[in-house]
Amino acid sequence: MLRFSFAPPPSKSYNLIIRIVAINKIHQLKGSDFNMSKATFLKYGFVVLFIGIFLLRAQKFISEPLSYLFSG
Domain-by-domain residue ranges, the chain? Predict the structure, then answer.
């Protein structure tokens, strides 16, 4: 039995949101903030990476119940 989800592919929208947030964060930085330590840079990088992976993994659990609701 085939089940179809009417939601758009979440990975594209999540990637877009993460890119917009990253671009906004870069634009907020002032000249002195670019002298960030390597540890701080890695910490922010891992946080962004973790959020991205979490959202990509969570989309499976979010889209399955939605497909059951809309499949009739």
Answer: 31-72
Which one-letter amino acid corresponds to residue 42?
L
Among 7, 17, 24, CA closest to 59: 7
Residue matched to tokens 């917009």: 20
Q: In 3-state terms, the chain is what percent helix, strand and coil (to 5)? A: 80, 0, 20
Burial of 10 (0-12, 13-18, 19+ CB in 10 A): middle
Across residues 41-50, what is the average pLDDT?
A: 88
pLDDT surpasses 60 at 4: no
pLDDT per residue as tens digits for the range 16-37:
777 777 777 766 665 555 567 7
DSSP run (H or E) holding 29: none
3-class DSSP state for residue 5? Answer: coil
The model's pTM is 0.39
